[in-house]
Amino acid sequence: MVPSTFYVRGVSYRQPVLRRIAGWLEPLASSEVTARLVLESDNKHDPNAVRVEVLLGDDTVSPGYLPAELCQPFRAMIYSVNDTVVEWPAEIVSIGCDGEQLFMEVSVELPDFLPHQSSTKTRSRNGTSCSPAATNAR
User: Fold this and answer.
1) What are the tens digits of pLDDT across the range 11-67?
2) Considering the entire predicted model, what is its pTM?
3) Could you tell me where the beta strands, DSSP code E, fall in 77-129?
4) pLDDT (tens digit, 9 = 90+) per residue, 63-96?
5) Are the beta carbons of 21 and 95 closer than 8 angstroms?
6) Cα–Cα distance, 10 to 8 (Å, whole number)
7) 98 forms bridges with which residues in the sheet?
8) Residue 99: left if φ>0, alpha if ψ -120 to 50, beta else—which one?
9) Separation CA 37–CA 52 (nearest Å)
10) What kind of architecture, by CATH, is found in domain 5-108?
11) Under a CB-based contact definition with an 8 Å cutoff, are residues 3 and 38 in contact?
12) Using CA atoms, how far apart are residues 38 and 66, in angstroms rounded to an integer?
């Protein structure tokens, strides 16, 4: 079963990217910022990796990855729909602060024939930034 909402992993290494995404989200409607999940079969650390990408205007940035425990079920779901698909649309649910670091929560539209489940993890949300400068970078 693939949760329909999850926290992006690896964000501690990509805090400048999260600040940049948050800077784009603030003045825009969230529907104007596109997110997607991309199969990353050539990843040297994990051939099952699924990268999260966010399109900011003409630029594409990656704030992190689908949690490792969800990669194989997600890939199985993708291949059951279409074996040539290498990316899947996603939506940014929130960007928040957990202590000193930003985090990102993403939602995925799953096909009707698959069960839907939300992430069981919770995080404290103290707004969209850890400091005033955290979300103003672009």
Assistant:
1) 999 999 998 888 877 665 454 577 888 899 899 999 999 999 998 888 899 999 999
2) 0.75
3) 87-98, 101-108
4) 999 999 888 888 888 887 776 667 788 888 888 8
5) yes
6) 7
7) 101
8) left
9) 5
10) 2-Layer Sandwich (3.30)
11) no
12) 9
